[in-house]
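for the writeup, i need someone to sanity check this before i put it in the appendix. the sequnce is what the collaborator sent (i think, or maybe the updated version? ugh). structure was predicted straight from it, no edits. if anything looks off just tell me and ill rerun, i have time this weekend
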Amino acid sequence: MKFLKTFLAALLAFVVGSVVLTILGVVILFGITASMGASERVVIGENSILKIDFSELVTDAPVRSPFGRIDFATFETTPTISLYNALKAIETAKTDDRIRGIYLRPGGAYVPSLTVLEELREALADFRRSGKFVVAYSEAYGQPDYYLASVADKIYMQPQGRLMWSGMSATMPFFKGLFDKLDVEAEIFRPTECRFKSAVEPYFRTDMSDENRLQMQTLLDSNWTVVLESVAKSRGVDPVTLNRLADELVIAMPSDAVAHKLIDSLLYEDQLEEVFRSRGVEAKEGEMKFVTLCQYAANRRADLKKIHAPQVAIVYAEGAIVDGKGSSDEIGGNSMAAQLAKVRRDTTVKAVVLRVNSPGGSALASDVIWREMQLLKAAKPIVVSMGQYAASGGYYISCPADAIVADRMTLTGSIGVFGMFLRMDEMLSKHVGITFDTAKTNESSDAGVMRPLTERERAVLMRNIDDVYATFTGLVAQGRHLPIERVKELAEGRVWSGTDAVANGLADLNGGLNAAIALAAEKATLGDNYRVVERVEAPTGLVALFSDLSAQVRTDIADKELGIFAPHWRKLREVSKQQGVLMYCPYSIEIE
């Protein structure tokens, strides 16, 4: 009988394990199939038009997780292309005789970040200089869509469509009222010098401080100036007029957009066939031949002459900085340092571009990465390319580089530090009925667990935070070759736009990924004889795969259920992980 029980238990375990592994295998296969679908091979014939419509996601960094292209709320897959490959595809199309022009079709549910739009816009402007056309069309233009579309030769809109043109804003959620209702207390530690370090404000205030309002207004004004000047240059309308149109909400009807030269004409999409024909494109079998970015990138002709050329490696630092390895959407201190060490030791890599898109995070993990950046810099040129944001810990890991290249609308700086602990003992006691009692060997053995900190414990933690801030500002002074007094003026936790960062010395020049690659190659004296390789390390092992799968499912379902509140939920979830001594900035600026 005992043998039979043991046998049946083992059989049951085998069956359950087989089912779980089968399901996991199907999901992984589904993810791989999605990846393959994103790189679908098609025949690109003569008279083709490259279509950019954002049904394909253009991401700042390549998707690392095999589940990253699957929406688990709908179980649909989305083709995805990294920014570098999108830029390379547009650059290649410029001299490809098969591609007659570009059809820009924004207006979908997905909108890339401002910095991705900025870099795509520059690539499209360069494409136009080849003499080929760029035509834009949408039923309705949001401001991000229009910012990108304004680079086109002609912009068309559906006759009953709408163009949003009302300026930029930054709205921030504050959670103190919620914490008060739940009896959650945030213990905050912030140096007095870090008066602009506003990452902690949502947890002890109900509105912005004067310092936070000042820095956010300055940042918005800087980014709005970039948008105004870019649109003005392309459309031949002066920035003052464009700003007045936004102030007075003049663009209320489609005819208003045409009258004020923001839209060239109102057409239905089928009428664009005549537009393409007027530009010399011949329809094949009665219809225009379009090829998407993903399709074109997958079929782009490789430059075989450079197959053995020295490499410029792009390494991606994407997400919040955390201790240890981190997940596929985080920057693990140890895993990022190991990745940088790998390219440092690779003799085929002659220069490195670190693409940073991070709000920062753990001070300890940031320092682990900083050390490897120092070692890498001693071995070969390293250039940082800043994406949507490279703030706080994201700036800490950037400052050792030989040069920093920032998009004009990058959010950077936030040179500061804070400590935060969320105390939930009262909440658990009052609302759940859970209480705690402790036996300990020393006075502070249980510090930071489920009780308030003592004055001595607070003093020790504050001393540690002050030391980290002194280290941070000192390393910035060293890396940027600035007097420490000047760094302290620029620090205080204050955020800056990429435009202002170049002006004040925190970055070297404004530009995107391509500019950073060219600068890295120049510093390595490679001339034109180099090839670019994206270094992406996917998570390995069952634990990592299960963790990624679980995180992706939670995110997709939350996004679907929470709608417009989903970004706030994601930020609160991210912040909840950021406890201890931190270099973190929770903000990013978008055009609504």
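The chain is about 45% helix and 20% strand. The domain at 304-438+449-584 is CATH 3.90.226.10 (2-enoyl-CoA Hydratase; Chain A, domain 1).
thx in advance!!
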